[in-house]
Amino acid sequence: MMVMDGVHLEVNRSRIDAIVEEFMAKVALITGGNKGIGFEVARQLGRAGFTVLLGARDASRGAVAADKLRGEGADVRFVVADLNRAPESGAALAKRIGEEFGHLDVLVNNAGMGDPADGHASVATIDALRHTFETNFFGAVAFTQELLPLLRAAEGARIVNVSSALGSLAINGDASSPFYHVKSLAYNASKAALNMFTVDLAYDLRETKVKVNSACPGFTATDMTNHNAPQTVEEGAIAIVRLAQLPDDGPTGCFIHKDGTYPW
Ligand code: NAP
C-alpha cells in the first residue's frame, strides 16, 4: 500500500518493476528479420543484450524465427513489419513500441528484395522498378519516418540502412571494379536511393545523438543469392552489427562494409 496526497493506492511492485524494466531496455528493431542476414543480425544483437523486435511481414515465419532465437536465450519478440503496407504497418509498429518501451535504440532497415524482371538499364521493366523501390526504398523511408520520434527519444539511437556495393554510383561507373558488370537497374537504383536517404537523414539529425549509416553486407549466401555466394550470414552481419552498436564518437552519414568504407 502506498499513500499519495492522502490517497491510498494499491501498488503491485512486480508490475511496476516490469514496466520500468521495459522502459530501461535497449531495444532494436530489424526488418526482414525472419531469415538470411536479418535473422543473423537479430541473433547477434540478442546475444549483445538488446531486446530484439524481429520484424517480419508473415506472422508464422516471424513467430517461428523469434521462437528459435528465444530458445537460444535471447529476448526476441516477433513484430509485424510489412514494407509493402507502409506507412500503415510502420505506424502500427511505432504505436506498439511507444506503448511498450517508449523509445527505440536501433533500427535496422534490412528487408529487401530483387525482382525477376530486373535487368540492364535498357530492358529492366517499369513494374520491376516500381516493385523494387516499393520495398527497398519507399518502405524503408516510411518505416524510418514513423519510428523517428521513438528513435529521437532514445539515449543515442542508431539507424542502419542495409544497402549494397551495387548501390554505389562510383562503383557502378568504375570499369576496374569487380562489380562493374553487375547491372540490375531496379535493385542498384533502389540501393543508391537508400544511400541518399542515409546521407540526407544524417544531415537532418546532425545536431542530435542519432547516427544514420549505410552498410553493405557483402556477397552472402542467402535465399536472395540462391545460397550461391562466398560469405556466411555471420560475415554478412558484421558491418550491420557494428553500425548498430557504434560508440557516441562513431561516424554518421557513412557507407561501410566489414573491411572498410565504400564510395557513394
Ligand atoms: P533474404 O534472405 O531474401 O531475406 C530478405 C528479408 O527481407 C526476408 O526476411 C524477407 O521476408 C524480407 N522482405 C522482403 N520484402 C519485404 C517486404 N515487402 N516487407 C517486409 N519484409 C520483406 O535476403 P538477404 O540476403 O538476407 O538480404 C538482406 C538485405 O541485405 C537486403 O536488403 C539485401 O538487399 C541486402 N544485401 C544482400 C546481399 C547478399 O549477398 N545476400 C548483398 C548486399 C546487400 P520474407 O521471408 O517474407 O520474404
Secondary-structure blueprint:
Layout: E1 2-4, E2 7-9, H1 13-24, E3 27-30, H2 36-47, E4 51-56, H3 59-71, E5 76-80, H4 88-100, E6 106-109, H5 126-153, E7 158-162, H6 169-172, H7 185-204, E8 211-215, H8 233-244, E9 255-257, E10 260-261
Parallel strand pairs: 3-4, 3-6, 4-5, 6-7, 7-8, 8-9
Antiparallel strand pairs: 1-2, 9-10
The protein binds NADP nicotinamide-adenine-dinucleotide phosphate.
Please provide a written account of the structure:
By secondary structure, the protein is of the alpha/beta class. The protein has a single domain (about 1-260), classed as NAD(P)-binding Rossmann-like Domain (Rossmann fold). Helices cover about 45% and strands about 15% of the residues. The chain has helices spanning about 15-25, 35-45, 60-70, 90-100, 125-155, 170, 185-205, 235-245; strands spanning about 1-5, 5-10, 25-30, 50-55, 75-80, 105-110, 160, 210-215, 255, 260. The strands form two sheets. Strands 5-4-3-6-7-8-9-10 form an eight-stranded mixed sheet, sandwiched between helices. It has a two-stranded antiparallel sheet with strand order 1-2. Helix 2 (about 35-45) links the parallel strand 3 (about 25-30) and strand 4 (about 50-55). Helix 4 (about 90-100) runs parallel beside helix 5 (about 125-155) and helix 5 packs parallel to helix 7. The longest helix has 28 residues, at about 125-155. The protein is globular. The model has no long low-confidence stretch (mean pLDDT about 95). NADP nicotinamide-adenine-dinucleotide phosphate (NAP) binds near residues 83 and 84.
